[in-house]
């Protein structure tokens, strides 16, 4: 996914995630995650006018898109994820913004990369 995960583009997709999705908040962003078994991992981005003018809102969305591009490529399919900018998004240090996204994904219950085949004990000790 060189350009990042496929996008949510229709209003109804955003509303479905807002209504039925799992929610998580961090200082740098808010996240809504809706499980969609059998589908790809898709992502949408939004920033309200409360954040600031168009320049600031666009900067927030660019930062969220880049964070999603870097982190979500490793996550398993089957989720619609909406990332919502907060007041701290445009000025949050980059490493903390990435940490906010990781933590929000964990809080919303999105399985971490490699979690599908993970065992509690290594195979050689299980016997």
TrEMBL record:
UniProt KW keywords: Endonuclease, Hydrolase, Nuclease, RNA-binding, tRNA processing
EC class: hydrolase
Catalytic function, reaction form: Endonucleolytic cleavage of RNA, removing 5'-extranucleotides from tRNA precursor
SUPFAM superfamilies, A to Z: Ribosomal protein S5 domain 2-like
RNA-binding as UniProt keyword: yes
Record has Hydrolase as a keyword: yes
Region named Disordered: 105-127
GO MF annotation list: ribonuclease P activity
Record note on quaternary structure: Consists of a catalytic RNA component (M1 or rnpB) and a protein subunit.
Biased composition (Basic and acidic residues): 117-127
Name used for this protein in its record: Ribonuclease P protein component
Family statement drawn from the similarity comment of this UniProt entry: Belongs to the RnpA family.
EC numbers for this chain: 3.1.26.5
Chain's role: RNaseP catalyzes the removal of the 5'-leader sequence from pre-tRNA to produce the mature 5'-terminus. It can also cleave other RNA substrates such as 4.5S RNA. The protein component plays an auxiliary but essential role in vivo by binding to the 5'-leader sequence and broadening the substrate specificity of the ribozyme.
Domain of life: Bacteria
PANTHER family: RIBONUCLEASE P PROTEIN COMPONENT
One Pfam family per UniProt: Ribonuclease_P
